[in-house]
Specification:
The chain is of the alpha/beta class and 256 residues long. The chain contains nine helices and 14 strands. The protein is globular. The termini are far apart. The structure holds zinc ion (2 copies). The site of one zinc ion has 6 residues, from helix 2.
């Protein structure tokens, strides 16, 4: 299987997974880059997986489905271009001979889902849309901090080797904030240097891994003493784990 991050818009990645004959695409906000890749690589589009309803994740769904006959899967609780197969946490989706488990991850939107496969060519694979980013997490447009914390806990509990396919190249901005939160985290400083070198060459910083995110991402580390102390120095009223997480997210919203 080959995994490709197709760039779209300013900073989106449309993830394409293929076996040389058939492909699936995740969150095609724009049909054109996907259609171009299918043509170039001689692939048939078998399925479209959608994580949530935002236009930069769904804008190309109808055109791709009409052009290819691909089956569309998406969260049952969101408005996805019809017709699609509605999914909820715990469902299994079989595509290209791979079984993806659906994980409910509300927070960025109310019905956001992620797709996890435990063995794709020997390593687990996660498509997490706008819930988990490298070094960060999605903004809370529809969900509560408690929901997002629980969603990130569910993703953090996946195997460390899981390849994390996020939908945006937000890594450098996220790591700059992460360093403000946790200035003494050496793994974070190392990773920021590595990502700067990648971006200077125009290479994606993704996929990340769950093991790496647990070491560097403040939103997966809000219960670590250093992160909690740092958040409380910024927002003194943050006195339980949900309040600390909420204050961390708010700090990031205001960070320049
Ligand atoms: Zn979104
Ligand atoms: Zn997005």
């Amino acid at each position: 299987m080959e995994l490709i991050a197709l760039p779209a818009f300013e900073d989106n990645y449309l993830w394409l997974l293929h076996d040389g004959h058939q492909a699936l695409v995740v969150d095609p906000g724009d049909a054109a880059p996907v259609a171009g890749a299918l043509r170039r690589l001689g692939l048939r589009l078998a399925a479209i997986l959608v994580t949530h309803h935002h236009g930069d994740h769904t804008g190309g769904v109808a055109a791709l489905r009409d052009a290819t006959g691909a089956q569309v899967f998406g969260p049952a609780r969101e408005r996805i271009p019809e017709p699609f197969t509605p999914l909820a946490g715990g469902n299994l989706v079989e595509v290209l001979g791979i079984a993806f488990r659906v994980i409910d991850v509300p927070g960025h939107t109310a019905g956001h889902v992620a797709y996890f496969a435990d063995d794709v060519d020997g390593a687990p694979l996660l498509f997490c849309g706008d819930t988990l980013f490298s070094g960060g997490c999605g903004r809370l447009f529809e969900g509560t901090p408690a929901q997002m914390l629980a969603s990130l806990d569910a993703l953090a509990a996946l195997p460390e080797a899981t390849r994390v396919c996020c939908a945006h190249e937000y890594t450098l901005g996220n790591l700059r904030f992460a360093r403000a939160v946790e200035p003494a985290n050496a793994a974070l400083a190392d990773h920021e240097r590595a990502c700067q070198a990648l971006r200077e060459r125009g290479v994606p910083t993704l996929p990340s891994s769950i093991g790496l995110e647990r070491a560097i991402n403040p939103f997966l580390r809000s219960r670590e003493a250093a992160v909690t102390r740092s958040v409380q120095a910024h927002a003194a009223s943050a006195n339980d784990e949900v309040a600390v997480f909420a204050a961390l997210r708010q700090w990031k919203n205001e960070f320049r």
